[in-house]
Specification:
alpha/beta, two-stranded antiparallel sheet, about 40% helix
Length: about 290
């Protein structure tokens, strides 16, 4: 079982993450919960029911803490093609803590980040969660210390429900962000997988069922790719290139490299989200 955020049991006990169908629904629950912190706001009830947590524990919860727990699950399950593992600072092993303190040159580094994600190459990426009430744009002071403290890391990840980040961050290399509009892409099945991992420490992305025409095309493409060193594939109109890519990658396995060219940034973003949702971590590393 994977090590998880130290406060995961308390967050799960509030019901905030139970039965979610969208990220907007979670934001609504957070707004309500922190107005009435002694109540749980689980789904399917017209009236709130008492939280299973004592009031002393709910008083110490924050919206950022809830998003930290969700972020750890997201980076572990939904972003498995990018990262081999991801842990909140409260769940890091002593060996990793020693490693990042040594590499960053800062003993207090754990107080300046929310967690560390390890890429398939072994590189360490620091991550930070910023909750933005009403999705207002975040200000530089919210992440200034984080960026200064993590320059020695291979990369940095900002996770926020704000829809936009300051333009100055666009110039920073090796900075990956998850914004509100990215989180809005999460669907009911995504939240089910995330909740499964939060409860059990286990989870695996499951590809969607293939149609007969999709299966025929993929079989033909796979046969060509096995027999030829280089194959160029142009997806038919109306087909999602990410769906075709995820299927081909699953069939080819981890020892083949697939190059993909996209005509627009929008198509690239859609493909990445599809790969995150459908591809198996065992056969894909981006």
């Amino acid at each position: 079982m994977s090590q998880r955020h130290q406060r995961t049991p308390q967050i799960l006990a509030t019901g905030l993450l139970t039965g979610l169908t969208s990220f907007a629904e979670l934001e609504s629950r957070l707004d309500h919960f922190f107005t009435e912190p002694a109540l749980t706001v689980g789904p399917g009830t017209e009236k709130e029911t008492p939280s299973s947590l004592p009031e002393s524990e709910t008083d110490s919860l924050t919206a950022t803490l809830v998003l930290e727990v969700l972020a750890e699950a997201l980076l572990t399950i939904h972003h498995a093609p990018f990262f081999r593992e991801a842990h909140a600072t409260t769940a890091l092993s002593p060996q990793v803590v020693t490693k990042i303190r040594k590499e960053s040159g800062q003993q207090e580094i754990l107080s300046l980040i929310h967690g560390v994600a390890i890429a398939h190459s072994g590189e360490a990426w620091a991550w930070l969660v910023i909750h933005s009430p009403d999705r207002t744009p975040i200000k530089p002071k919210a992440y200034k210390q984080f960026l200064e403290a993590t320059e020695a890391f291979s990369g940095r990840i900002l996770i926020t429900n704000a829809d936009e980040l300051p333009k100055s961050l666009d110039r920073l290399p090796r900075l990956f962000s998850l914004r509100g509009r990215d989180l809005d892409r999460l669907e009911t099945n995504d939240f089910r997988r995330l909740n499964r991992w939060l409860h059990t420490g286990q989870g695996e992305p499951k590809p969607q069922q293939r149609t007969a025409s999709r299966t025929r095309l993929l079989t033909a493409l796979f046969d060509r790719m096995v027999s030829q060193p280089v194959v160029t594939v142009q997806t038919p109109p109306g087909w999602q290139s990410g769906t075709v890519l995820s299927d081909l990658i699953d069939r080819l396995g981890p020892r083949r490299t697939v190059w993909a060219l996209f005509s627009t940034v929008t198509e690239l973003r859609q493909t990445v989200h599809t790969l995150q949702r459908e591809a198996r971590p065992s056969s894909l590393a981006l």
